[in-house]
Amino acid sequence: MSNIKEQIEQELANARAVCDTSGPNSQECAAAWDAAEEVQAEAAHKRQQKPKNSLEKYCDDNPDAAECRIYEE
User: Any coiled-coil ranges, and where (predicted)?
Assistant: First the structure.
């Protein structure tokens, strides 16, 4: 999780730098802030995902195991 925090901080710093050099109303500034917002949205999405239980982890590693079979009607 700290990796995503570092990436967010890096994108925010980049957006500030781009806006300082190209102006706050430039297209480059808007694109830099969009990129920062996308990274923040990705982090929020990852926080909302529920963690997998031990059976789900096992089935990810062993999809052919008897415990992981899914039967359709």
Answer: none
